[in-house]
Design a protein that fits this description.
Elements lengths: L1 H24 L10 H4 L3 E3 L2 E9 L8 E9 L5 E8 L4 E10 L2 E7 L2 E3 L4 E4 L5 E5 L10 E8 L5 E8 L14
Parallel strand pairs: 2-11
Antiparallel strand pairs: 1-2, 2-3, 3-8, 3-9, 4-7, 4-10, 5-6, 5-9, 10-11
This protein binds copper (II) ion.
Length: 177
């Protein structure tokens, strides 16, 4: 009898976490007085660290937007970033901006190697992650769940903070003031 009750409880837990995931993907707004630094997730997995994670706000649902972040690789091996998934988005692509004869073109990046002991940055005007088909508006202060998948390191989940600015919010990646 006791065992039956325990078994029955498991689907309820799954259902709850599934619901929580859906709510998170809707970009729940952070309280206005929340310290930005507190809401920046700095994730570590195998000494690969992701920081300065933010997304450009949108004016229309479904409008493609850019996501930016910094990856630091403190391991002794190169790691290869294969994909960045944004929760709820139709798809994401990694792009680089290439300047040729005064013209800037976006070119797809198949993957991105972060050298052993090195760092790579996605930032406005350079490499960026394009997110397509997000059903919700991204308003400043919202959060967007991202999952980074590597060829030879554990996946990393981070939350991007939505900002209307052209640069990372001032406090991104800082601890305290
Ligand atoms: Cu692009």
């Amino acid at each position: 009898m006791g065992i039956y009750r325990q078994v029955k409880a498991i689907p309820a837990i799954f259902a709850f976490s599934f619901l929580a995931t859906i709510l998170a993907s809707c970009g729940a707004e952070t309280p206005e007085n929340a310290d930005f630094a507190d809401s920046v997730r700095v994730a570590r997995a195998n000494n690969v660290q992701v920081s300065q994670v933010w997304a450009r706000s949108t004016l229309v649902p479904g409008q493609p937007t850019g996501v930016y972040l910094t990856i630091e690789n403190a391991t002794k091996m190169d790691v290869k970033l294969l994909h960045v998934r944004a929760e709820g988005a139709e798809r994401t692509e990694m792009h680089d901006n290439v300047h040729t004869d005064g013209i800037v073109r976006m070119v797809p990046l198949g993957d991105l190697v972060v050298a052993a002991g090195g760092m790579e940055q996605f930032q406005p005007g350079g490499k960026h992650i394009m997110v397509f088909g997000l059903p919700q508006l991204l308003k400043p202060g919202m959060q967007l769940s991202l999952t980074l998948t590597f060829e030879n390191a554990s996946p990393i989940d981070v939350l991007a903070i939505v900002s209307a600015n052209m640069n990372a919010p001032d406090t991104a990646g800082h601890n305290g003031h």
